[in-house]
From TrEMBL:
Domain Alcohol dehydrogenase-like C-terminal: 202-259
UniProt-recorded name of the protein: Theronine dehydrogenase
GO terms, molecular function: oxidoreductase activity; zinc ion binding
Species this protein is from: Candidatus Magasanikbacteria bacterium CG10_big_fil_rev_8_21_14_0_10_42_10
Superkingdom of the organism of origin: Bacteria
Family as reported in the entry's similarity comment: Belongs to the zinc-containing alcohol dehydrogenase family.
Keyword annotations from UniProtKB, A to Z: Metal-binding, Oxidoreductase, Zinc
Length: 267
């Protein structure tokens, strides 16, 4: 059995509270074996070329998010080590026997993908609303992820990409980009005034898409002036900086922000 490097956390060896960051260790090379795991017929092995670091990875790095999900999911799998990461681009190097006929994905294809591994069996999945699957797993959180040189992943999570249209390293961001596409295609923004709360990675994608889809005015809102400067460069017509104010409760409304939104959207 050959070994490959991966970025991981091991709840027994590292501990959740007693460690920080991503811990590099050698793991077994993933392989397809349909005789012992029939589901491998619809899985592929991807050689990862670029990976993205999500805001949720920062929470994992600092051990202040997804604590319960890590514990519960590893408990169910009866193991203690999780391979982290969920934003990726790479090349298919091996494919299960049903992958070509079901998904038209082949060895040699460049692929990115979605981090949500849905069950395909629950009511929501069968209604075509996989985003609210009752038994959803997330790569790098509640199932093994992609911070490794080779990963096994269900073919249905993959999206074949075209490097002649999108730069290779940007293709690693299809997962967060998908969030922005989902938001901006749920409502018709043509001619609308759109306020985007949070000018992080997904917010920036949302600004570009809102402009592309014909929003009349795009307003970016954030606590960080540098992010708002980039938002403006990307096409936000207006920006609102949320400044620290004295509030009784952290959840109290920021009155200056509300007033400014009312003004910009003509209430
Ligand atoms: Zn993410
Ligand atoms: Zn489901």
């Amino acid at each position: 059995m050959s070994h490959i490097p991966a970025l991981t956390i091991d709840l027994e060896q590292d501990g959740w509270e007693t460690s920080r960051g991503f811990i590099k260790r050698e793991i077994e090379m993933p392989e397809l074996n349909e005789s012992t795991r029939p589901s491998d017929a619809v899985s592929v092995i991807v050689k990862v070329e670029f990976a993205g670091v999500c805001g949720s990875d920062r929470g994992i790095w600092n051990r202040n998010s997804f604590t319960d999900l890590f514990r519960e999911s590893l408990g169910k799998e009866q193991k203690s080590m999780r391979i982290l990461g969920h934003e990726f681009v790479g090349e298919v190097v091996e494919a299960g026997s049903l992958v070509a006929s079901m998904y038209d994905i082949h060895v040699g294809n460049p692929v990115s993908g979605d981090s949500h591994v849905t069950c395909g069996k629950c009511f929501q999945c069968r209604m075509g609303e996989q985003e609210v699957c009752q038994d959803q797993k997330i790569l790098g959180i509640s199932t093994d992820g992609i911070f490794a040189t080779y990963v096994k992943i269900p073919a249905k999570n993959l999206w074949v990409v075209d490097f002649t249209r999108v730069r290779k390293e940007l293709c690693a961001l299809y997962d967060p980009f998908g969030n922005a596409v989902h938001c901006l295609t749920k409502v018709d923004v043509r001619g609308a005034r759109v306020a985007i709360f949070g000018a992080g990675q997904i917010g920036m994608f949302a600004i570009l898409l809102a402009r592309q889809f014909g929003a009349a005015k795009v307003i970016a809102i954030d606590v960080n002036p540098e992010q708002l400067a980039i938002a403006k460069e990307l096409g936000a017509h207006e920006t609102i900086l949320i400044e620290k104010t004295d509030k009784t409760h952290a959840y109290d409304a920021d009155k200056q922000v509300i007033d400014r939104i009312m003004e910009l959207t003509y209430a």
